[in-house]
C-alpha cells in the first residue's frame, strides 16, 4: 500500500475494518498515512461512514468503533459535576482510578442549548493525553462556558464501580447533588 492512494469505497471498508479490530483509538493522521490520502479526506470518510450508520466516534485520542464486546456489557450513568478548569485532571483521574470510562462532557449553553463533546478516557495515560492535547492546542474545556458546571456520562463493568467512582467525586467535592 506504500505510495498508492486507496480510493473511495475500498478505503472506507479498510477504515471500518481497522477501527473494528483496534483496541486503541486510531487518529485521522494515522488513517491518512495508511491509505495515502490527506487527513481531510479521512474526516470526510468518517462523516460518510457515520451517515451510513457506522458507530464511529471521534475522541481526543482518535476514532473508535463502538460495537466492541467490552463496550456492550457495561452500565452507564450521568453525573453532575462542578470544578474550575485546573481541577479537570484530578476529576478524570478519580473516575478512571475506579475502572470507569468517561464517555463525554455535556453542558447546557444559554444560546446553543445542550452541547456534548466526546472524551472517552479510561486510564491515567488517556487522561494525561487528553489534558496534554487541550494544553497543546490552547483549547478551553467545554465546562468553562458554564463556570464549571457540567455533566459526564460514565460507564463501567458494574454498578459497584460507578458507585465507588461517584463516592470518590462526592468526597473530593466534585459532585453536584440535589
What count of helical segments does DSSP give? 7
SSE pattern, N- to C-terminal: HHHEEHEHEEHEH
Note the overall shape: elongated
The major β-sheet equals:
4 strands, antiparallel
Poorly predicted regions are none
Strand content: 15-25%
What is the strand arrangement across the widest sheet? 3-6-4-5
Beta strands, count: 6
What structural class results from the helix and strand content? alpha+beta
Written overview of the protein:
Strands 3-6-4-5 form a four-stranded antiparallel β-sheet. The chain contains seven helices and six strands; from the N terminus they run H-H-H-E-E-H-E-H-E-E-H-E-H. The chain is elongated, with a radius of gyration of 18 Å. It is 42% helix and 24% strand. The mean pLDDT is 89. Strand 4 (101-109) and strand 5 (113-121) form a beta hairpin. The longest helix has 14 residues, at 8-21. It has 178 residues and is an alpha+beta fold.
Brief summary:
With 178 residues, this protein is of the alpha+beta class.
Keywords:
24% strand, 7 helices, two-stranded antiparallel sheet, 4-stranded antiparallel beta sheet, elongated, alpha+beta, 178 residues
Helix and strand arrangement:
Layout: H1 8-21, H2 28-35, H3 39-51, E1 56-59, E2 62-65, H4 69-72, E3 75-82, H5 88-97, E4 101-109, E5 113-121, H6 124-136, E6 149-156, H7 159-171
Antiparallel strand pairs: 1-2, 3-6, 4-5, 4-6
Amino acid at each position: 500500500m506504500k505510495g498508492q492512494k486507496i480510493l473511495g469505497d475500498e478505503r472506507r471498508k479498510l477504515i471500518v475494518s481497522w477501527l473494528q479490530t483496534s483496541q486503541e483509538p486510531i487518529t485521522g493522521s494515522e488513517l491518512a498515512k495508511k491509505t495515502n490520502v490527506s487527513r481531510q479526506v479521512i474526516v470526510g470518510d468518517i462523516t460518510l461512514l457515520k451517515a451510513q450508520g457506522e458507530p464511529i466516534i471521534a475522541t481526543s485520542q482518535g476514532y473508535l468503533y463502538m460495537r466492541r464486546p467490552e463496550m456492550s456489557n457495561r452500565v452507564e450513568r450521568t453525573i453532575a459535576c462542578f470544578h474550575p478548569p485546573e481541577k479537570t485532571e484530578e476529576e478524570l483521574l478519580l473516575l478512571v482510578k475506579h475502572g470507569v470510562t468517561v464517555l463525554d462532557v455535556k453542558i447546557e449553553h444559554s444560546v446553543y442549548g445542550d452541547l456534548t463533546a466526546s472524551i472517552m478516557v479510561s486510564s491515567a495515560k488517556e487522561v494525561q493525553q487528553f489534558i496534554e492535547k487541550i494544553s497543546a492546542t490552547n483549547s478551553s474545556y467545554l465546562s468553562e462556558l458554564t463556570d464549571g458546571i457540567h455533566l459526564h456520562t460514565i460507564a463501567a463493568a458494574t454498578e459497584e464501580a460507578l458507585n465507588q467512582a461517584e463516592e470518590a467525586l462526592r468526597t473530593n467535592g466534585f459532585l453536584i447533588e440535589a
